[in-house]
Structures are given as structure tokens and as C-alpha cells.
From TrEMBL:
The keyword Ion transport does not apply. One of its GO terms (cellular component) is cytosol. This is DNA helicase DnaB-like N-terminal domain-containing protein. The keyword DNA-binding applies. PANTHER family: REPLICATIVE DNA HELICASE, REPLICATIVE DNA HELICASE DNAB. Transmembrane segments: none annotated. Keywords: DNA replication, DNA-binding.
């Protein structure tokens, strides 16, 4: 340590830099492995290379490689010449020296990893020097801000400061009562206003094919976009955004909102930190990862291995939750009916590692164009603990809580538009979810009786009067009216002041 600084020379490893560059020119097959550690390195001011010439050579190698050519010293020298940088890098002799001086190309990834690690150590030293200078000037708040800014920047790319995660957490705000626990405030709202997703937490919506996972995910996106937030949708099974955009439009999201706040990605290659950092700026309130198993396979992670789930979480999920986004992964259930609902397909760690909720959809009526589909919504995990009290415990499966029904009505009979609703379960109803169909039938009979009684008394049977007389909750009344209209038991007519009137047509057999 000196009087005017903490260190005489920042950490660096020129041998690792030279070996990395030489290996890239000697064997192009190692370049993807090197790139995974170092990325583009196009910014001379933020490069991982200590020697500026090495950054120029690396950038030239990647330029040749990206054009589909083998980046040997001759082509790299030509690229540097075009950029006006050949003389600044030592010329062709230096390139050939790198090419011939590699101990072994099989260690190229390790050389690159050393370069990246030394760069992070250099960043720590630079941070320490700035903090030291600020502290010497008595600028304590400035020194603290240096630490906060740098840590936030590292977390945005999934990297925390070395040792930062092992520092004791400040418990003061919790003990003083200043800390607010996250409440479920993200995504699709139930008919009573309840939402199932927590900000800054990881969630999964799972179900068999055609159970409504895409509708649940897209409706959650629509809710966030309409509320003025940004949304990121990463679809690992479909690169074409047409269907997703069409659903957002159908759900009432305006085109300019989609263009300004919605980002859709359909990747066919593994993610890199700089890609994700760009997608997370500005920070979205919701990130949807559609096709979790395909995503894990794309990144070389086995869905049935615990290490695979953990690595996938570190790579794709934690950078998103670090910026405050609720992450919603769409996953499949196991095929074994006895184990369905216990967790998503693959390693149990996929479900056990969730920090938010695990949503299960079980289809009751198929979804489709021109149809009315319905799925029952359950919660099988709720780590923060806010949701189960607003649902009904399943008496047959411990840990499974019925939260309501997701209904997508595209018949256009009652309304001129597609109607999506997430209905809350009936209050004080202790029947099992499996008995809902018989309960629906009873509700239908009760509501139809109310309509007949109102008509017989010379009164108007509109939604307000039927709700008031039915003796059941408004959501259940509305659901019954929808079913009665679809099944042809009532006729729906426009009334005064934009009201809707109901006329009985036939008895329920």
C-alpha cells in the first residue's frame, strides 16, 4: 500500500491473456468456450484484458470468426489492418508468437476463466481505491454509494461482488419493522383482486398440454403491461411472436403499449450475461420463461438432475429476480397420474427451489377457438405464505389448495369479444374441487329460478337484480349466467342504460 493509493499495480495475468488468444487462433472449436467466459469485449474502457492490444486482437478474432472463417494469424492481421490497429498490437510477428506459444489448446476455457477472474479482482481493487479516496476526503456517503452501484451492476449480470453474498445481512430494517415482506402483487388478478405472483420471486405454472398455461402466462403479461410495467417473454419452444401478440391484443393490450413495454425473445442458443443484462434494462416487473425443459436442454442442463435445476436457476432466474422481477416458468407435469400435481416434470429440485408459488392447472373443459374452456387453479407451494388462506384445501391431496377457475370464453355469444376470467372459489364451500360440476348445476338451477321469479313478478331480470336475489356470490352468479346462456336456457338481450337482461327459454332437464 502507498500513500496515494492502495496498490502499486492492479491484478493481471498476461500469460493467461496470451494463451487465450493463441488458442483461439490455433483451434477455432475452442472459441465458444472462451466466449462463454469473456463475451464480446468491444468496449476498450471495460475490457477484461489488462493489455489494450489484447482486447483489439480478441475483437479481431471474433470478427473473423463471426464471418465464418478460421481466425488464423494471417486473417486476424488482415482484420487488424482494416481497423487500423495492426501496428498498435505488435504486428504480424506478435500474432504468430501468440499462435506458436500456446501450451495446450484444451485449456483455452480455463485460460479465459483466469482472465475473467483476474478482471473481477482488478475491479475490486479499483473499487477499493475509489472508496479509499472518498474516505480520505470524508465523503462517507459517496464511498457507500460506490459499493452499492458496483454491486447492483454485478447483480444485473448475475454476478455479485466476490465475497459479497457471504457478508452478514443487515437485520436492522427487519428488527425495526421497516422491512416489508413481498405480497403477491404481480400478474393475473382473481375476481376478488388476489394475485398469485410475488415480485422478485421465482414461480412455476404447470399443467398438462392444453391446460391453459399459455393463457395464464399471457394474461399475467397483459395485466402488467396495462398497469404500465415492462414485461420480458422468453419462449424456448416458439420463435414466432405472432400468437403471443395476438393473445395480448385479444386481452385488450393496445399496440403502442406492446411496442413500448413488451419484449419477446425466441432464442436458439444459450444465453450470455450481456444478453440478459440488456433485456433486463429497463427492469421488467414480470419475466416469463415459456418451455423450461427446452430451456434447460438448450443450456446443457439435465431436467432430472438436481445440479441441472440449480445451474439453470443461477443462469437465467436469479439475474431476473435480482432486478425485482417476478419470474414465471411454464412447465409440464409428470405423466404418472398418481404423482401429478406434486411438482413439475424432472428433478424435485425444480419445485423445491422455488422462492414464490407453484401454480397447478387441471383442465375441466378444453380451450380452443370458438370454445369456452375452463381449468381449475391450485397452489401446491407458497413459500411466502400469503395465498393458501385465500383458497380451499384439497381434502384428497395434502399441500394442494384450490384457488379458483380459469375460464376463457371465445364463443362470442354473451360478449362480442373473448372473455378471460379467473374466478375465486365460493366462500364457505367445503366441497371437494372434484364436485364442482354438481355444484355448478345447483347454481344454474338457482339462478334460472330467480330469473323466472323476477319475470313473473313483472320485474326486469338484469345482472344486478339476479345477483341480489340469487343468494350466492356474484362470481358464482355470473358464471351460472354464462353457462345458462351458452347452453340455451336463457336469452340475453340488451337493456336500458347498457344493462343486460335475461329471458328464460327452457327448463333445465
Amino acid at each position: 500500500m502507498t500513500d496515494d493509493g492502495l496498490f502499486k499495480e492492479p491484478p493481471h495475468d498476461l500469460a493467461a491473456e496470451r494463451n487465450t488468444l493463441g488458442a483461439m487462433m490455433l483451434a477455432e472449436n475452442v472459441i465458444p468456450d472462451v466466449y462463454e467466459h469473456l463475451g464480446d469485449q468491444n468496449d476498450e474502457r471495460r475490457t477484461a484484458f489488462y493489455r489494450p492490444a489484447h482486447q483489439m486482437i480478441y475483437s479481431a478474432i471474433m470478427g473473423v470468426f463471426d464471418r465464418g472463417a478460421k481466425p488464423d494469424p494471417t486473417l486476424v492481421a488482415d482484420e487488424l489492418t482494416k481497423r487500423g490497429q495492426l501496428a498498435r498490437t505488435g504486428g504480424a510477428p506478435y500474432l504468430y508468437g501468440l499462435y506458436e506459444g500456446v501450451p495446450t489448446v484444451t485449456n483455452a476455457g480455463k485460460y479465459a476463466e483466469i482472465v475473467a477472474e483476474v478482471h473481477r479482482a482488478r475491479q475490486v481493487v479499483e473499487l477499493a481505491e475509489r472508496i479509499d479516496q472518498a474516505a480520505r476526503k470524508g465523503l462517507v456517503d459517496t464511498a457507500r454509494q460506490f459499493v452499492a452501484d458496483w454491486t447492483d451492476a454485478q447483480r444485473a449480470t448475475g454476478k455479485a461482488a466476490p465475497g459479497q453474498s457471504w457478508r452478514p445481512v443487515d437485520l436492522g430494517p427487519i428488527l425495526r419493522g421497516d422491512h416489508e415482506r413481498p405480497a403477491p402483487s404481480v400478474g393475473l388478478a382473481r375476481s376478488d383482486g388476489l394475485r398469485l405472483l410475488y415480485p422478485g420471486k421465482e414461480h412455476t405454472v404447470m399443467g398438462a398440454m392444453e391446460s391453459g398455461k399459455s393463457w395464464f402466462s399471457t394474461a399475467s403479461c397483459a395485466a402488467e403491461l396495462t398497469a404500465g410495467h415492462h414485461v420480458l417473454y422468453v419462449h424456448f419452444e416458439e420463435a414466432d411472436p405472432t400468437d403471443t401478440v395476438e393473445r395480448l391484443r385479444t386481452l385488450g393490450v393496445q399496440d403502442h403499449v406492446i411496442a413500448e413495454r413488451f419484449r419477446f425473445v425466441g432464442p436458439d442458443e444459450p444465453v450470455r450475461a450481456e444478453f440478459l443484462a440488456e433485456l433486463l434494462s429497463p427492469a421488467p416487473s414480470l419475466v416469463v420463461l415459456d418451455g423450461v425443459n427446452e430451456a434447460m436442454a438448450m443450456h446443457g442442463q439435465a431436467i432430472r438432475e438436481e445440479d441441472g435445476a440449480a445451474a439453470f436457476r443461477r443462469l437465467l432466474v436469479k439475474p431476473c429476480t435480482a432486478v425485482g422481477a417476478a419470474v414465471l416458468g411454464a412447465d409440464h407435469v409428470v405423466k404418472d397420474r398418481e404423482r401429478q400435481g406434486l411438482g413439475p416434470l424432472g428433478s424435485v429440485h425444480k419445485g423445491n427451489g422455488l422462492s414464490g408459488s407453484l401454480v397447478l392447472l387441471e383442465n375441466a373443459e378444453p380451450f380452443g377457438r370458438g370454445q369456452r374452456g375452463r381449468s381449475y387453479v391450485f397452489i401446491t407451494k407458497d413459500r411466502p405464505g400469503y395465498l393458501r388462506g385465500a383458497g380451499r384445501a384439497d381434502t384428497k391431496t395434502p399441500g394442494k389448495t384450490f384457488m379458483g377457475s380459469l375460464v376463457v370464453d371465445d364463443t362470442r355469444t354473451q360478449y362480442s369479444y373473448l372473455d378471460l376470467a379467473f374466478w375465486a372459489p365460493a366462500p364457505k364451500d367445503d366441497q371437494d374441487p372434484g364436485e364442482l360440476k354438481s355444484k355448478d348445476a345447483k347454481d344454474d338451477e338457482r339462478v334460472l329460478d330467480v330469473i323466472r321469479e323476477l319475470i313473473a313478478a313483472g320485474e326486469t331480470a338484469n345482472k344486478r337484480t339476479v345477483r341480489a336475489r340469487s343468494g350466492i356470490s356474484s362470481p358464482r352468479t355470473d358464471a351460472a349466467l354464462t353457462r345458462l346462456g351458452l347452453d340455451g336456457y336463457i336469452r340475453i338481450e340488451p337493456g336500458a342504460k347498457n344493462a343486460t337482461n335475461f329471458i328464460p327459454i327452457q327448463e333445465i332437464s
